[in-house]
Structures are given as C-alpha cells and as structure tokens.
Amino acid sequence: MPLYGKSQPTKIAYVDGRPKTLHLRKARLLIHPGLPKQRELVFDQNVISIGTVADNDVVIEDETVSRHHCRIVQEDDDYVLVDPGSTNGTFINGVRIREAFLAPGLILTVGSTQIQFSPMDEHVEVVPSESEKFGSIVGRSVAMREIFGILEKIAPTTATVVIEGETGTGKEVFAKTIHQMSKRSEAPFIVFDCGAVPESLIESELFGHEKGSFTGAIMTRKGLFEMAHGGTIFLDELGELSLDLQPKLLRVLEQREVRRVGSNKSTPVNVRVIAATNRNLEEEVRAGRFREDLFYRLSVVRLTLPSLRERVEDIPLLVKHFLGQLEINKGAAGELRVRQASPAALAALTRYTWPGNVRELVNVVERACSFAEADTMQPDDLPDYITGSGEPLRSSQEMAMIDAPGRDQLVELPFKDAKEEWISSFERDYILELLKRHHGNISQASREADIDRKYFRKLMVKHGIDTDQI
Ligand SMILES: Nc1ncnc2c1ncn2[C@@H]1O[C@H](COP(=O)(O)OP(=O)(O)OP(=O)(O)O)[C@@H](O)[C@H]1O
C-alpha cells in the first residue's frame, strides 16, 4: 500500500496509447523545521543525497554528520531513507535506522540536524504544445506537439527518461534537446552507444578502470559517468546492454556512485540518464532479456516517438527546417540555394512510406539540394523510388506489392498489424534486391537506396539478411 494515498511517482499516464496526464513527483525537505534558520529545498530527482561534502544534494554543516551520510530514494510508490553506515547514524522517533519508509511530515535526525520530509505532487493534463518547435526539434502533428508539451514540463527536471522509437525517428536529437533545455545545459552531454562497443569493454567505458585491472589497462581512466558529472549521459541502444551489465547500471542509478573496474572505492556521481532503444523494453522484460527493476528505475518518463509514416503532416515543416540547416544548401554568403519545395515534390514526399524515418528524409533533402537547378525543389530532384517514376528502383515498390503478404491475408489482420506486416515485407525485399544488385556491397547498396549505411545494416539485422546469402 503506498504511503501517499493516491499520489504516484513521476509518470505519464497513457490512454489508448496517447499521453493524457503527467504526474510530477517532488520531495520537499525543511532543514531545521520550526527554527528561525529553517531552510526549504525541493527536489524532483529520485535519489537525494545528504552529507557534509559539496557533491551532496543537501549539504549540511554539522560536524556530527558524515561526508555522505544518508540518502532518500524514490521507490515506485514510496520514498525510502537509506543510511548504509554513517558514523553517528540517522534517527526517526529516536530509533536508529538503516532503511525506512518515509511518511509525509516525518522528521528525521541526521547527526544533530533535523529534516522534515513532505512529498509534493503535481498532476498536469498533457495538452499539445502550441509551439511547432522544441529546441531544434520541429513538428506540427498532434503526436509531436503532445511530446513537446511533456518535454516542456520534464526537461528542466532531473527525471530519467527512456525514449523508444524506430531508427531515425530522432531519439538522439530529443535526448540532446532535453539536456539543452535543462539546468544542466552548461555541463557535459555524453553519448554512449551500448550496441557499438564490444561487451567486454562496456563496463570500463562507462565506469572507468584502474591501471592494471585487465590486460591493456595501462593507465587509470575515468569512465563516461564520471565525465558526465553534473550533466547528462545518453545511453543509446539500451536494449543491447547485456543481462550481466544491467545490475551494474542499476547500482549506479540507485546509489549514484560508480566503482571503476579493479577498484574497491566508489566515487559519487550526479548524472541525469536518458536512454533510447528501438526495441520495446516492456516486451524485452517479458522475454527475460531486460531486468524489470532496471526498466522501472529508468522509465520514470517514457516517451515513444512516432514514426514519420504516422505523422506525415510534419513533412513540409521538416523539409523547410532541413533546407534552412543543411550546409550543402548554403551559398557563399550563407544564402539558401533551394528555398522551398514545390507542392508536387511535397506531395511525393508525403506519399512515400519512409522506412528510414527522419534520417532518410534528411538524406533525400540533402540529395535534392545538390540536384536542384532552381530555388524550388521539384519532383525530378527526388530519387525515383520516392516519385515512383524510376526504372529498376521502381521495382522496390512493385516488389512490395508483389511479394508482400496477399491482400486477402492482410485484411484478416487488424490495421496496425497488417500495416507492419506489409512494411516489413517491403523492407526485406527492398534490401535484398539492392544487395543482390551490388553483389553484397553494403556501402554501394545503401548509397543507391539513399539511406544511411548504419540504418541499412540495422535493416539487414532486423530481417536476418546476411551478405553471405547474396
Ligand atoms: N523532429 C525533428 N526535427 C528536426 N530534426 C529531426 C527531427 N527528428 C529527427 N531529426 C533529425 O533526423 C536525424 C536522425 O535523428 P536521430 O539520429 O536523432 O535518430 P535516432 O532515432 O537516434 O536514430 P538511431 O536509432 O539510428 O540512433 C538527425 O539528423 C536529426 O537531427
């Protein structure tokens, strides 16, 4: 039974897949309650550390208090006080405690300092933002403006965020923007791709290592968590993190300290974590590939970015945005070479199904800028597979029509499943066809497809395509 009645931890409530309400959980601490020198502090993070040294969230000048004395941890529905071993102890109602649930209004005694704890809840309706921009992210669809509405509230907090979405939907740019719109914007934003580093090196990359702790560790090195101190760490492809390493990450999140490989000393870190994955983490938990406790600890705020196919009304705005951003579209004096897209070009871009999402759109606009001969982008400046007019690549669309599961089969499925089935079959055939044409050369095939090589590889993995098959 939660101690705080109907209150809930910081979370977004979804109804029919749409974000409806945002519960922001905060904790208020009164230091020296009732005394003239009473001090009030409000926190939105899920661990609040208390001690005498400056890296604590609550710094207390009291010689009976330890350097890192105790911490208050937000559990799913409750707050828990943890004192793992301070010298003079933490007391509630005169009883020394190591771990205890905190009820609202309760006073804890830390050394000779009293602290009163009260949870504070803010419930807000998620309303689509009026703005079509959040930092460097643009979007006018309701789905995107709803996300902007959430971000306006949660970016300034320290809440951990998990961003889910297909490849190229903008997960990294969202993470960076959340950091830039937070109070941590002056501190480092560190990116780590859990899928790009060999498993054996991930621990030392993230947490650092001591000299000689393993073959090749010739110097002591700080890990990325220490480097991100005061700022944000972005863990991309979190779903790739092995089950062995997941408890180590959980430990850092819960205890807010890291231990370098080969060291038995912990270093406190103050880092906001934003993680992204193109897998559905809930399904990964059900399949036993992702730890449930880590999932709950991380997904304080969980955002799902819609694919570009689901928000085609954003395409004109995105095209305009990229025309203004891309270096290739700038003349000697910084003027834009292509200023706009013609209605026919926009219509073609809107009809296409965008397996590579926004990243693929960026590539297409970039390519069109180098093809365009006037200041308006025309359908001729777009790749044939987008306008549906080209010779061989036209076959990608035909292939999808021909090889996709039969229409009769598809109409038996719910719309969403049928659509996914159809797109998946298109992706598989398209990639296979291009690889065949380029004798298994991924660079050439991805260039012809006009999609990023990294994304091309991901599609190969997704569909179990190996160049040996070609
Ligand atoms: N809404 C948006 N507004 C402006 N630019 C965007 C938007 N969404 C994505 N982009 C741009 O699209 C490109 C791809 O985005 P990003 O790399 O963030 O995707 P991702 O989901 O992290 O991809 P991956 O899963 O492959 O790592 C970037 O150039 C990014 O700036």
Automatic annotation (TrEMBL):
Q: Where is the FHA domain?
A: 48-97
Give the Sigma-54 factor interaction domain ranges.
137-370
Q: What is this protein called?
A: FHA domain-containing protein
| Annotated coiled-coil segments of the chain | none
- Recorded source organism is Microvenator marinus
Molecular function (GO) terms for this protein are: ATP binding; DNA binding
Keywords on record? ATP-binding, DNA-binding, Nucleotide-binding, Transcription, Transcription regulation
For this entry, list what GO says about its biological process: regulation of DNA-templated transcription
